[in-house]
Write a structure and sequence with these properties.
By secondary structure, the protein is an alpha/beta fold. It has six helices and five strands; from the N terminus they run αβαβαβαβαβα.
Length: 154
């Protein structure tokens, strides 16, 4: 979490837009899938879909609510980025092989460039995370460490 906060602070210092993406868990868990979550069908408290205060959400940041794996699907994210003339996205996230990869694939399909912070993402397990960053992500984006991103923004 600290690494994400540091990237967000560096972006803000350069006048960049910081976007937070939360998941509407009740809609997400109702998707028709072959392997549903053990929580599917149970109403989830709304606070579970909120950004943790320790993450560093600030006034002026953009808050997007997604209902599927990727942050671009049926959200205002693309529109908000285009309105601001943003064409390159620094991507971090809590689900390397889910939300991060889905957002990366959707966004590149829409013409956005990405820099993905390897050490500011986490996978279900180390092998899935490693595979994504060694085999998939370099074909879709520039892969960097949070330190490299922060240094470039300084």
């Amino acid at each position: 979490m600290k690494t994400n906060r540091q990237i967000a602070d560096a972006l803000r210092a350069r006048g960049g837009l910081v976007v937070w993406v939360r998941v509407d868990l009740n809609e997400f868990l109702s998707l028709p899938v072959d392997q549903p979550s053990r929580f599917a069908g149970q109403p989830m408290p709304p606070e579970l879909s909120e950004i943790a205060p320790s993450a560093g959400l600030r006034n002026g940041d953009l808050l997007i609510t997604k209902r599927h794996w990727g942050a671009f699907a049926n959200t205002a994210l693309e529109e908000q980025l285009r309105l601001r003339g943003i064409d390159t996205v620094v991507l971090t996230g809590i689900s390397t092989n889910g939300g991060v990869e889905s957002t990366l694939r959707q966004g590149t399909g829409l013409g956005f460039a990405f820099i993905v912070a390897e050490d500011a993402c986490s996978g279900q397990d180390g092998e899935e995370h490693r595979f994504a960053f060694e085999k998939t992500f370099p074909r879709l984006a520039r892969v960097r460490t949070a330190g490299e991103i922060i240094k470039a923004l300084a």
